[in-house]
Specification:
This protein is an alpha/beta fold and about 250 residues long. Helices cover about 35% and strands about 25% of the residues.
């Protein structure tokens, strides 16, 4: 069976400074995968490379065994909330409806069916009652739910989420976790950049430990060990684990 996400010798750099170095791994289908490592480890860069937002220096990323261009509709992406312009004048329903655009093609405009899809996805994340609210007026947790709903509207087979739990309240975190588990149970694959070491074992089936280079990747019960955490975080490992955030 072809892996939903395969990374082959990926090297990436910003201004000639390496961020990822010769990273290779693959994740199995129908898994909830955590990408874990300290600040500056290249976690976000990894997802951006998978989405074609960062051009690798070397290596490649394959989605279901193919280049992204051939299977883009099969990938849903939730960026970091801090990277979004929340002043853009649109409401929550319209943001979620944008998730249907990839399947419409260039010649069709969204209609009643796409509107119903958006509303179903908003309901799934507990946001239907705020569908008409301007996106910038929502709280951080509400904004994160809307962007998850947009990804749901894409009806993808692979979801990539960059730190979806940052800056959200406890209730939103539980909603997000339950939703990601539902997607996993439906046979989708979900890859999440995550920062809280204290919840890794509870949230994820599979973990990728990254610090510019790959430290380990595999089933959480086998890979998420004290030894591998120490190799990933170095001297900051204990403090990161105690504080529940990147070291």
């Amino acid at each position: 069976m072809t892996a939903p996400l395969s990374v082959h010798g990926l090297t990436a750099a910003y201004r000639d400074e390496p961020v990822l170095w010769d990273v290779s791994f693959s994740v199995p289908e129908g898994r909830l995968v955590g990408v874990v490592g300290p600040n500056g480890a290249g976690k976000t860069t990894l997802l951006k490379a998978a989405m074609g937002l960062v051009r690798p220096v070397a290596g490649a990323v394959e989605i279901f065994g193919q280049p992204l261009e051939r299977v883009r509709r099969e990938v849903g992406y939730v960026p970091q909330r801090g990277s979004v312009d929340w002043d853009f004048p649109t409401d929550a329903r319209d943001v979620v409806e944008m998730g249907t655009y990839g399947r419409l093609g260039w010649l069709r405009r969204p209609g009643a069916e796409e509107r119903r899809t958006a509303e179903r996805c908003l309901e799934r994340v507990g946001m239907l009652d705020l569908a008409g609210r301007q996106i910038g007026e929502l709280s951080g947790g509400q904004q994160q739910r809307v962007f998850l709903a947009r990804a749901l509207a894409q009806d993808a087979r692979l979801y990539l989420a960059d730190e979806p739990f940052v800056g959200v309240d406890y209730l939103t975190e539980r909603v997000v976790v339950d939703l990601l588990r539902e997607l996993r149970d439906e046979g989708r694959t979900v890859v999440v950049v995550h920062h809280d070491l204290s919840t890794v074992a509870d949230y994820f089936d599979t973990v990728v430990l990254l610090n510019r280079e790959l430290v380990a990747a595999g089933p959480t019960a086998e890979v998420f060990t004290a030894e591998n955490i120490a190799r990933t975080y170095g001297g900051a490992a204990r403090r990161a684990e105690e504080m529940g955030r990147d070291g």
